[in-house]
Predict the 3D structure of the following.
Amino acid sequence: MLQNLIDTLMQFGIWGLFIHSFADAIFFPIPAFFLQVPLSLLQPSNALWLATAGYVACLLGTPIGYLIGRLLGHSVLQKFLKKSWVDAATRMFQKSGEAAILVGSFTPIPFKVFTILSGALNFPLWRLLVYAAFGRAVKFYAVGLLFYSYGRAAEGMVKDVSLYIAAIAIPLIVVFLLIKKKIAKKKALEVQAEVEENVPNTDKMESNTSVRCENDR
């Protein structure tokens, strides 16, 4: 049944991919990658336009998936998706929400798992959109550029595209998160230092006030 639906969407070309990618961020169990590849194979010269359509549709669908998570919670994922997908995504979120979204943007796990989980776990929507915008761009345009550059010869290359992207991107994500954590820690120490500096001044002001009151008496 699902394959018949994908075949139907394929007949609509770029608009079919738009619909598929939009649904991929909300409820459709098959990632848009599986429609982007055959469409790009048919018309490699349009591969970048296909990537753009899929990318934009995914970002439009992301807030809706997020809202479903907020309203229906984590349980909705267990009803419609593989337990292994949900468990893997949940573990990633528990370690780091940002890393989960970035890595999840180009893994075989359907992206809706991460949009719905973000809502269910009250992850900030604006952060979801920012990280999704980066991660999904990498996934869609990596496929688009391969077909645009190599034509139909890229068919054999895209089979492991998620693996290649992950091998390059995951170390970069780790470095990014470490830098972010270091900056946050530095800011926290600066704030703490400012507070500690102000405490003696406050005590001094209170002492001076007490002296004035006694003098007035």
